[in-house]
Amino acid sequence: MHQEEFINPKLKSYNLDTYYMKKSIFENVKQSCTFLEGDLLDVGCGKMPYKEFIITNSKVISYVGLDIESAIEYHSKIKPDFTWDGRRMPFKDKSFDSVFSTEVFEHCPDLDIILSEISRVLKPGGKLFFTVPFLWPLHEVPHDESRYTPFHLERKLLENKFNKITIESTGGWDASMAQMLGLWVQRSGKSRISKKIWAILSKPFISKLIKKDRKLTEFSESSMHTGFKGFAYKI
Fold this sequence. Notes:
Blueprint (H helix, E strand, L loop, with lengths): L18 H14 L4 E7 L7 H7 L1 E10 L13 E3 L11 E7 L8 H11 E12 L16 H10 L2 E8 L3 H15 L4 H21 L14 E8 L1
Parallel strand pairs: 1-2, 1-4, 2-3, 4-5
Antiparallel strand pairs: 5-7, 6-7
Helix pairs in contact: 5-6
C-alpha cells in the first residue's frame, strides 16, 4: 500500500487515478495561502493534510479542524479538533476570519445548511476557500451526494450572505481526459497484470495531457472541467 501524497505529489504508475486531483488541489491550496488569514476553520478536515503547509505559508495564526461525527477515520492518531452533527457547528457566531474546505460540499445532503453555518461562524468580511470535484467517480458511498456546477455554487453562496465570489475551473478538457484515463486504468476492474501493462502504456500520455491542459476561463456550453475552486467573502 503506497502512502498517499498531498504535498507536491509525483506522477507514478500506482497513482494515475488520484494524481491530477491531488496535484490540482495542492496548487489551489498554495494560491489560497495569499487569501487565508487569522483564525481559520477547516470544515471537513479529515486528517488535515495541508495544515502545516498553510500555517507556514499564510497569515493564518490558528487552525481548527472540524469534521462530521460520522466521518471516516482517515488516520488513527490524527483527529479533528471538533465534530458536529451536520446541523449546527459548535462555535459562536463570528468566530473565524477564514474557512477552508476541500472536496467536502459534495458529501453534504443540503448545501444550504453547511453554507449558512459557515456564514454564521465567519466574521463580517471573513473569507471562504473551497474546492469541489466535477469529474469524479462515486466515493465514500453512500455519502456521496452531489456534483455542482459553478452556476449553482454561485447562487447558493449569494443566498447565504457571500459576495465578491470567484469560481474557477481546476482543469479543462486535456486534464479531464488524463484523469479519466488514470481512473480507467486503476479502478475499472482490470486484473493486476493488465493494470500494470496499461499503467506503463498510459503514464506518458497522461503526463503529456496534463502538461498540455489549459484551464477554461469561461463556463460555456459543452465545456469540460475536472472540478472547481472558489473564493468568497462573508457580507
